[in-house]
């Protein structure tokens, strides 16, 4: 039996614990109390929860690894970019495939990490509102997964690329927007600090993009729409990054602690160490959700080669920005 449970506080002061019961009928009865006696919606949700879903992927079925279950923990974000989900905008025009806002920025993030090391090993990103049929107005979702454990690295993008190439030799995953006029490409938040924005603008120029949702910005890197996602603030969390981090690791990339990268650079002539985000450690001195924030900011990347050259330039340009201000 599934062990999930949720606690709801009703306007009348009553608290209801909704859990997956032994039968679909019992679960629907509990949901009906939360959903203002909406019987149809309660039955539909209960039916979906109790559905016996059989998942199989030939590529994963062929992988045989042994990961001790007692050394695995998970971070789950059921709705990343909640504001965009509530607002429900569906008419946003993308810029080079990147949406600044809208339902396309909504993601569901499921990541697993090793308890002893804190490193991510498996991740799934579900983008439920990836594309919309202009005639039926129905949405079609996309999902991406990656596994990175010891010597095993496999990703759904690699599999789909191989399948596509069998049918169409010219097809393949979207390439990174690499070094147009010797420029890099990056995505960030409009709330980023001015000195970081100035640095990114100088390195990327017209290839600097803005988008909602930490999960979606990471997905832009996973998809190869940009080279990097850079964010210096502490307003992203472990559940935002664990899933995409695992996928990026399976592709040869990762997500690093930006502040540690900058600190290391101050003691060395060039960028060398790669302090990956870890998912088993709380932020000392913090309380509540802030205990699990990415306190030092982050930089997500797909290419080790591009990361090192980019960070060398980023550090030098950031120093110039700080001098000017």
From TrEMBL:
Keywords: Lithium, Magnesium, Metal-binding, Signal
Annotated protein name in UniProt: inositol-1,4-bisphosphate 1-phosphatase
Residues the record lists as binding Mg(2+): 77, 79-80, 240
Gene Ontology biological-process annotations: phosphatidylinositol phosphate biosynthetic process
Signal peptide: 1-22
EC nos: 3.1.3.57
A GO term for molecular function: inositol-1,4-bisphosphate 1-phosphatase activity
Stated family: Belongs to the inositol monophosphatase superfamily.
Required co-factors: Mg(2+)
PANTHER family assigned: 3'(2'),5'-BISPHOSPHATE NUCLEOTIDASE 1, INOSITOL POLYPHOSPHATE 1-PHOSPHATASE
Source taxon at top rank: Eukaryota
């Amino acid at each position: 039996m599934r062990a999930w449970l949720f606690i709801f506080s009703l306007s009348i002061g009553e608290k209801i614990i909704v859990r997956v019961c032994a039968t679909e009928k019992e679960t629907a009865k509990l949901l009906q109390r939360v959903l203002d006696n909406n019987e149809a919606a309660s039955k539909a949700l209960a039916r979906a929860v109790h559905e016996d879903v059989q998942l199989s992927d030939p590529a994963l079925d062929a992988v045989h690894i042994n990961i001790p279950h007692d050394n695995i923990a998970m971070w789950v974000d059921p709705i990343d970019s909640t504001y965009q989900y509530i607002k429900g905008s569906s008419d946003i025009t993308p810029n080079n495939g990147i949406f600044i806002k809208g339902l396309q920025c909504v993601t569901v993030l499921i990541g697993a990490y090793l308890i002893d090391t804190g490193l991510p090993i498996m991740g799934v990103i579900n983008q439920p509102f990836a594309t919309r049929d202009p005639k039926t107005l129905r949405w079609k979702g996309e999902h991406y997964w990656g596994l990175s454990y010891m010597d095993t690295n496999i990703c759904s993008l690699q599999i789909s690329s191989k399948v596509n190439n069998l049918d169409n030799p010219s097809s393949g995953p979207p390439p990174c927007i690499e070094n147009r006029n010797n420029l890099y490409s990056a995505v960030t938040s409009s709330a980023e600090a001015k000195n970081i924005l100035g640095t990114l603008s100088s390195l990327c120029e017209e290839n600097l993009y803005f988008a909602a949702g930490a999960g979606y910005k990471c997905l832009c890197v996973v998809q190869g729409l940009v080279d990097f996602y850079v964010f210096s603030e502490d307003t992203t969390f472990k559940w935002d990054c664990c899933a995409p981090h695992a996928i990026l690791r399976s592709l040869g990339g990762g997500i690093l602690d930006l502040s540690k990268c900058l600190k290391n650079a101050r003691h060395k002539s060039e960028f060398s160490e790669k302090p990956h985000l870890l998912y088993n450690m709380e932020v000392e001195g913090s309380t509540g959700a802030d205990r699990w924030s990415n306190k030092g900011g982050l930089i997500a990347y797909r290419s080790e080669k591009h990361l090192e050259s980019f960070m060398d330039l980023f550090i030098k340009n950031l120093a110039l920005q700080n001098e000017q201000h």
